[in-house]
Amino acid sequence: MKPQATSRWLMGATAALAMLGASVQVFADDQAAAASDPMAHHGMPGREGGWQHRDHHEHMAFLLDAVDATDAQRAQLKQIHEAAHKDMMAQHESAKKLHEQIGELLAAPTVDAAAIEKVRQQLQALHEAQSKRMTQSLIDAAKVLNPAQRAKMHSLIKKQHERMAEHVHGREAQHEAH
Fold first, then answer.
1. What is residue 45's DSSP assignment?
2. What is the pLDDT of residues 140-155, one digit of tens each?
3. Is the dihedral of CA 94, 96, 100, 106 positive or negative?
4. What residues form DSSP beta bridges with 51?
5. Residue 156 backbone dihedrals phi, psi, to 5 degrees
6. Residue 134 C-alpha from the chain's centroid
7. CB neighbours of 119 closer than 8 A, spacing ≥ 6?
8. Which residues, in sequence order, are bridge partners of residue 45?
9. What pLDDT does residue 61 have?
10. Is 0.85 topped by the overall pTM?
């Protein structure tokens, strides 16, 4: 793949990931559901520097409005989200148990490196399954929107990422000055 094609593909993949990540928040039933979402902390910074569900919801609603998403498209995205959310929550619970196992193994009187490695491999396999599930959700979500909508959403998300990078860079400069 040529460098320009690779760059365009990566930008498209980034936009799609952001689109699905945001849609996960848009369709959460309530604050409690959002708080239990393992991906909830991967969104946009809130006004107080924390991660706020409302910001995700507002951002995705803005994006869907900006690309003139139809009610039918919004309904399809909601179905995709709900299925992915259900799967990811089950996988999150499995990962939590595996992390607890590693903690118990590390706290044991004798450290069993082989047992820890076995659990690490199980975690790695689970992470691969999560990655595949999220990728499939991205593909499904991207197919809901038409090419013009995807291009416009990508442009808007790219601009948002640039603004966020500028904000982060500015904060890092402030910290270095002190």
1. B
2. 999 999 999 999 999 9
3. positive
4. 45
5. -65, -40
6. 8
7. 98, 101, 102, 105
8. 51
9. 82
10. no
